[in-house]
Amino acid sequence: MLKKCSKCRKDKDWSEFYKNRSAPDGLAYWCKDCTREYRQTDKSKKRTKEYYKNNKNYFSEYATSYQNTKDGYKHNWCGTLHRHRYKGIEIHISSKELFEFIQDKNTCAICGKTLNWSRNGKKGGAHDSPTLDRINNENYIDLNNIQILCYQCNVGKQKMTNGEYINQCKMVLENNGYIVSKK
Length: 183
Prior knowledge:
Elements: E1 2-4, E2 11-13, E3 17-19, E4 27-31, H1 32-41, H2 49-54, H3 56-67, H4 70-77, H5 80-86, E5 90-91, H6 95-102, E6 130-134, E7 140-141, E8 146-150, H7 151-157, H8 162-175
Parallel strand pairs: 5-7
Antiparallel strand pairs: 1-2, 3-4, 6-8
């Protein structure tokens, strides 16, 4: 099978391309020859591994200080899409779209609890940690099928739809002597 290199514009056999899992066909966009040539000629323009190694503390402190900001945490949190993709769920939005979607999400969509958009030294799982939830548990994620819930609500909801979860909560209240108003 042949593929056109987007750099040299030549048709080449698939074996002439490196693998790239994120590309639609699983192959790099440039052929191996063009990639090698670029790496050789562009090394003087790029920072070398040695530069990063010698300035490791600076980059580590910079990354840590950014991740401890609200936006830094939210950027890092958007990596949740990769975990969903790994579970076999189709992703129809980008991390950038998800980041824009969560900008005004400060409370849980079900219980209204204020979400904690910071690490605070904890690894996920705090009751007020934000989580990504598929509203109807379809096998895809897009902007119309997601909501941001607190960790506690998402764990309680599990694989139920929003309606099923709300009915479940009403039954728990009624069985424990609380009166639930019908809306």
